[in-house]
């Protein structure tokens, strides 16, 4: 690939990353600054401004915003130098922020006395009803055409979906399970040896179910059941989950 092609690919990757970070709550300048620092490792306002479209004087405000998020460390030097946290740590920070927002939405709905157990729209569904959560997850597995991934920090969460997962595998869907015990022995489900697909102390998720790379049911660690479903290959949340689980 020629230099022009490599540059075009890099620019496209930058634009996609910036768009997704903005969708997760960063300002435009903060998103651009963070992407530049991921690319550079560390940098000054001058080097960041030369890498992405951020005026040098605005880099400092963007870096302060990123520091508040816990995404950038600021070195007291002359000139000031900025260091990006690791991509893994950034995913944990952004994922926690996303779940906090959902908790806020749930609390707000409860405060106004909503009698509905679910919040729905075309590409997002939130529920605290255990039966509805299991029904939605089972439907996602049943509708899968190519692949299903179940990752959990609590093997008991896999039990209600065990039959659906085995059935999907028997009809030719590639089904993988992470964090489960021997319940899938002698079945066509592939068990991946990874007891902790993420750090639950940092990212408070209990289970992630991902089908065909675009349907996800995510269950949170909480005293009461709380889960959401989201759809769409380019959905900001699904982009984050695929990165978290190492899925292209």
User: What number of structural domains do the residues give?
Assistant: 2
The SSE string, one letter per element, is HHEHHEEHEEHEHEEEEEH
Taking the sheet with the most strands, its summary is: 8 strands, mixed
- Please give the count of helices: 8
Q: Helical amount among residues, as a percent range? A: 40-55%
Mean pLDDT across the residues is 80
Which CATH architecture of the largest domain is right?
2-Layer Sandwich
Distance between the termini: 21 Å
**Beta strand %:** 15-25%
Computed structural class: alpha+beta
CATH topology of the largest domain, anyone? Endonuclease, Chain A
CATH C-level name of the largest domain: Alpha Beta
- CATH homologous superfamily identity of the largest domain: Endonuclease Chain A
Low-confidence parts:
1-6
Q: What's the oligomerization state? A: single chain
Main sheet: strand order: 4-5-11-10-9-6-7-8
Principal-axes geometry comes out as elongated
How many strands in all? 11
Radius of gyration: 20 Å
Domain Transcription regulator TrmB N-terminal: 21-88
Pfam family, one: TrmB
InterPro entries: TrmB-like (IPR051797), Tscrpt_reg_TrmB_N (IPR002831), WH-like_DNA-bd_sf (IPR036388), WH_DNA-bd_sf (IPR036390)
Protein name: TrmB family transcriptional regulator
């Amino acid at each position: 690939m020629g230099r022009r092609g490599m540059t075009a690919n890099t620019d496209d990757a930058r634009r996609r990353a910036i768009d997704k970070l903005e969708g997760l709550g960063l300002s435009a300048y903060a998103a651009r600054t963070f992407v530049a620092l991921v690319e550079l490792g560390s940098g000054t306002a001058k080097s960041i401004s030369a890498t992405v479209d951020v005026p040098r004087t605005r880099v400092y405000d963007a870096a302060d915003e990123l520091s508040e998020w816990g995404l950038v460390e600021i070195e007291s030097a002359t000139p000031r130098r900025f260091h990006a946290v690791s991509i893994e740590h950034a995913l944990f920070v952004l994922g926690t922020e996303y779940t906090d927002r959902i908790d806020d939405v749930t609390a707000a709905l409860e405060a106004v006395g909503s009698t509905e157990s679910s919040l729905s729209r075309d590409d997002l569904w939130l529920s605290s009803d255990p039966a509805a959560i299991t029904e939605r997850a089972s439907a996602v597995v049943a509708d899968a055409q190519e692949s299903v991934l179940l990752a959990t920090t609590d093997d008991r969460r896999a039990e209600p979906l065990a039959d659906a997962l085995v059935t999907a595998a028997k009809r030719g869907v590639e089904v993988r399970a992470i964090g489960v015990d021997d319940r899938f022995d002698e079945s066509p489900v592939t068990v991946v040896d990874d007891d902790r697909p993420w750090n639950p102390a940092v990212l408070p998720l209990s289970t992630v179910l991902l089908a065909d790379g675009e349907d996800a049911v995510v269950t949170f660690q909480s005293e009461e059941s709380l889960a959401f479903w989201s759809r769409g290959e380019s959905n900001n949340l699904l982009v984050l989950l695929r990165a978290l689980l190492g899925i292209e």
